[in-house]
Specification:
Helix content is 45%, strand content 17%. By secondary structure, it is an alpha+beta fold. The strands form three sheets. The protein has a four-stranded antiparallel β-sheet with strand order 3-4-5-6, with no helix packed on it. It has a three-stranded antiparallel β-sheet with strand order 7-8-9. A two-stranded antiparallel ribbon has the order 1-2. This is PH (Pleckstrin Homology) domain-containing protein.
Length: 276
């Protein structure tokens, strides 16, 4: 079932500050990713120089194409968030910030990995069948021809593990009357309001900007990527800090629209005099 969400922004009302994190990935990273793609293409072509048998040409070509495709899927991320905006799920009981669904990317990755893995195994079995030395009964296939099946098996294990973890716990950041909960890759991190020190954001160069929420102990800290929350981390940090500093407003967290309006209304002139 597709989960409906609403993208809400901040900064377009009188008195509201501009809270925004630079878009990620930036232009410099896009250039880097394109350079990596060129290197992968060159590496795939270089593998063909080592091939000595027809099946090795097929396997090395598949390995090169697979590496390029997987690199494109996992490194060239879609836009993780809209600068200065938050992505709120349509949940009637809590405020939940969620990323774009993983389903489509996992399906593409699964199709790619398992097709390559199946093709590699068939090619390996075929090459072993035709390369047996009749005098010794030992296959003359080189160890290099096992590279793609091993690579495919590793990718399949990682993919299955990611899919299982993604389905075990809904990814995203939940803010309710008890505190903040971050769920991603099967991991759940919690910080209660009474244990919270502050929230903030950091700009990551390789993996993207992050949201962090500090508790009284290091084990209670939250540090998640924007690919998990789907929202601008600077906006999320301001949202969390508002409800940390205004306990009376936390009752509104059971109604996402009212909670978001109270957060935005806190920047209006004289808002500090308004009672919850």
């Amino acid at each position: 079932m597709t989960q409906t969400t609403e993208v809400v922004g901040i900064g377009d009302r009188p008195g509201e500050p501009t809270i925004a994190t630079p878009q990620w990935p930036g232009r410099d990273l896009v250039v880097l990713y394109r350079a990596v793609s060129v290197v992968l293409v060159a590496a795939a072509a270089g593998l063909l120089v080592w091939a000595r048998y027809p099946w090795e040409y097929a396997e090395f070509t598949a390995a090169g194409l697979g590496a390029i495709a997987i690199g494109a899927l996992w490194f060239v991320e879609p836009v993780a968030f809209t600068s200065g905006a938050a992505r709120i799920a349509a949940d009637p009981n809590v405020v939940r910030f969620v990323a774009r669904p993983l389903g489509q990317r996992l399906l593409v990755c699964a199709s790619l990995v398992f097709v390559l893995l199946g093709a590699a195994i068939l090619l390996m079995l075929w090459s072993m069948a035709i390369a047996v030395d009749p005098t010794t009964g030992i296959s003359a296939i080189s160890f290099r021809s096992y590279a793609l099946p091993l690579f495919g098996a590793l990718c399949a294990v990682i993919l299955v593990r990611t899919a299982v973890r993604a389905r075990r716990v809904a990814r995203g950041l939940t803010v309710d009357h008890l505190g903040v909960v971050a769920a991603w890759n099967g991991t759940v991190q919690r910080v209660a309001w009474d244990d919270m020190l502050s929230a903030g954001s950091g700009e990551g160069k390789m993996f993207g900007p992050t949201l962090w929420v500090l508790g009284h102990g290091a084990r209670n800290d939250i540090n998640v990527l924007t690919s998990v929350t789907g929202s601008d981390p600077a906006v999320l940090a301001a949202f969390v800090n508002h409800f940390r500093d205004h306990p009376a407003d936390r009752a509104l967290l059971s109604q996402p629209e009212l909670a978001w309006e109270r957060f935005r209304g806190s920047f209006a002139p004289g808002a500090g005099d308004v009672q919850a």
